[in-house]
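User: I'm putting together notes for a lab meeting next week and I want to include a structural view of one of the chains we've been expressing. I don't have a solved structure, so I'd like a prediction I can at least talk through. The sequence is below, exactly as it appears in our construct file.
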Amino acid sequence: MQEKAYRSVIKTISWRTVGTIDTMVISYIITGSLVMAASIGSIEVVTKMILYYYHERAWNKIKIGRHKETANDFHI
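Assistant: Thanks for the context. Below is the predicted structure for the 76-residue chain, given as structure tokens.
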């Protein structure tokens, strides 16, 4: 069972939203500058979305921890 590419895109965007907010908060705490925090967040959101997408697609090809239930599988 494999995920469709658009599912990876949606997961990428939702995860990056959370990750970028985290990065901006940490950057603001460290620098004390909202402008610097926004700059750091805006750069990393693009690069990390690209990296995550390809990471997700690579893991989609790896079978570790996955199984496909057969028609005879049932649970009581």
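A couple of points you could mention at the meeting. The first helix runs from residue 5 to 31. The chain is about 70% helix and 0% strand.

User: Perfect, that's what I needed.
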